[in-house]
Amino acid sequence: MATPSLPPADTSPEGPRPQAPDNKKLQLMTGRDRLVLAFMVGIPAIFVLGFVWVPALISVVLSFTRWNGIGPVSDIQWIGFQNYTDLVTIYPQFLPAVSNNLLWLAVFFFIATPLGIFMATLLDREVRGTAFFQSALYLPVVLSLALIGFIWQLIYSRDQGLLNAMLGLDGTARIDFLGDADINIYFVLIAASWRHVGYIMLLYLAGLKGIDPALREAASMDGAGEVRTFFSVIFPAMKPINVVVLVITVIESLRAFDIVWVINKGTNGLEILSALVVSNVIGEASRVGFGSAIATILLIISLVFIVIYMISIYREDSPK
Amino acid sequence: MSTTAEVDSTAPTPTTPSDYDDLRTSKRRKMTPTRVLLYAFLTAMSLLWLFPVVWALYNSFRDYDFTSENGYVSFGGFTMDNYTNAWSQGNFTQLFLNSAIIVVPAVFFTLVFSTLAAFVLSRFSFWFNLPMLILFTAANLLPQQSLLIPLFRFFREVGLLDSYLSVILVHIAFQTGFCTFVLSNFMKALPHSLTEAALVDGASVWRQYWQIILPLCRPSLAALTVLQVTWIYNDFFWAVAFLNSGDKFPITSGLQNLRGQFFTDYNLLSAGSILVAVPTIVVFFALQKQFVSGLTLGADKG
């Protein structure tokens, strides 16, 4: 994308324009202009508040209630923290889901994200054919996670999968990579990481392109090796991108849903929080309060990282 | 990529990763053992990354009876039948149409809303600009599942459950946050003299938006369109959550139709998967630049 060419700034023949501060500018506006502005920002805001923030708040409120979600709102019973204690004590899927989400986060954070960053630094080294290498790594990023779930079944399937064929296993010796509750989460994570690595690589590479080459040169003049240069010069200079990458890693780990849902709807070893929320609402047993408690836990963990991100991107914009 | 320059004018001029650059710089590079290792590693990684898609593509052209007799690690049994069967069994004509019915209005209104909101939030100094931008940006990052229960109940109450509109509305709300964030960064970087001149000439706020700011946003809008089309097309969750009749599913969620309850023909599923991937693969090849810049636009601010 080219930088847009701006038309010449001074087009009015009336001479120098007053450098109107913003409050003067507002005074220059007619009542109609104000109304237009109110609509311009108001309608989108109603959408974002009404379909995102209000439902999020209602989820939190509902998590303290018991309700089947079918009856009228007057059926709602307040039960305090009962749903939360029930989650831990009498809902056997909850703890596996938490541990799977943590595992998801750990694999993304310690393996997939660093691998993406590593690939970006390699591709930033004036590599010939970089377009090919980049494209290969980022191909999975354009695919949906649901589709990735299907594509990897061709590799993992017990009877028709490639992996069993390559391992030379036959009959009962075949491994049910996605059906065996002890191991399936790891294989799902390989498929999910396949996409995540490309995503992180793209973001990081874009950031690396913006690093002043003089920084690197200065470091190498000082005799720093490549690894040292990266960790003591490049990585700190990439702080804004690092925050983005951290937030994306966490959020994607918490939002993971599609890939697990297409495999077995988040059961049998693949329990994750997002899938539990959905099964509690859409499944036969409609347990709204219970599902909301899980949703609230997801929400609160996400918000911690969203707040970090918001502070990092908007700190400089705060009013003087 | 080059959008860094648009969003943040203080950043050093980025180098475009074009083939031209590669040619120019590679002449200066000697093939040291380290570089040989680098190329070997990059090639291995690339092939490994391409493999799952290539494998699906390969098997999508093979006959089920042939592969069940000779195993999947074999050569031969080529046929186009999986594609025709997947298309008819999966009701793909309808499902692709459903995707279009959802994606086109969702992307259109997302961009309309976010250009409007971004214009106000970036070109004027109201007290609510910063809180509003934070609410918009953060909205896009919330886990969708934590909004599900109230939205589900709301749509059932107003009779929109199992309608395209429910899915479209939620997409608009969710994506407007991200696009407003990106566009407001872009609009903020446009010189203020542009609209001040118009203001003195008595141009209305609407004309400033429509005739001055919006035309300058074209490159960003192109990138965002490509990105949003891909994202909304790829959505699985909202459709599964709000639609329950299979003939309303968009293609990404409807691919499940090809999976039998007890038995799955993986060659058929491969062909179906490839068909579903085609639009995004087109984006991948033809509009790579827009997609990548759309994706990185959001990450540039900081």
Q: Examine the secondary-structure arrangement and name the CATH architecture of chain B.
A: Orthogonal Bundle
What share of the residues of chain A does DSSP label as strand, in percent? under 5%
Please indicate the percent range of residues of chain B in DSSP E strands (runs of 2 or more): under 5%
Mean pLDDT across the residues of chain A is 85
Reading off the top of the CATH hierarchy, the class of chain B is best stated as: Mainly Alpha
Between the first and last Cα atoms of chain A, what is the distance in angstroms?
A: 33 Å
Give the uncertain stretches of chain A in residue-range form: 1-21
Total beta-strand segments of chain A: 2
Largest sheet of chain A: 2 strands, antiparallel
CATH homologous superfamily name of chain B? MetI-like
Largest interface, with counts of residues having CB < 8 Å to the other chain, equals:
A-B, 134 and 136 residues
Task: Please state the structural category of chain B.
Answer: mainly alpha
Helix content of chain A: 55-70%
CATH fold topology of the domain at 93-286 in chain A? MetI-like fold
Description:
The complex is a heterodimer of chains A (320) and B (302). Chain A is built from 14 helices and 2 strands. Chain A is mostly helical and 320 residues long. Chain A has a domain at 93-286: Orthogonal Bundle (MetI-like fold). Chain A has a two-stranded antiparallel ribbon with strand order 1-2. Chain A is globular and about 70 Å long. Chain B is mostly helical. Chain B has a single domain (3-30, 61-300), classed as Orthogonal Bundle (MetI-like fold), CATH 1.10.3720. Helix content of chain B is 72%, strand content 0%. The longest helix of chain B has 32 residues, at 92-123. Chain B starts with a helix and ends with a helix. Mean pLDDT of chain B is 84; it is low at 1-27. Chains A and B meet through helix 1, helix 2, helix 4, helix 5 and helix 6 of A and helix 1, helix 2, helix 3, helix 6 and helix 7 of B.
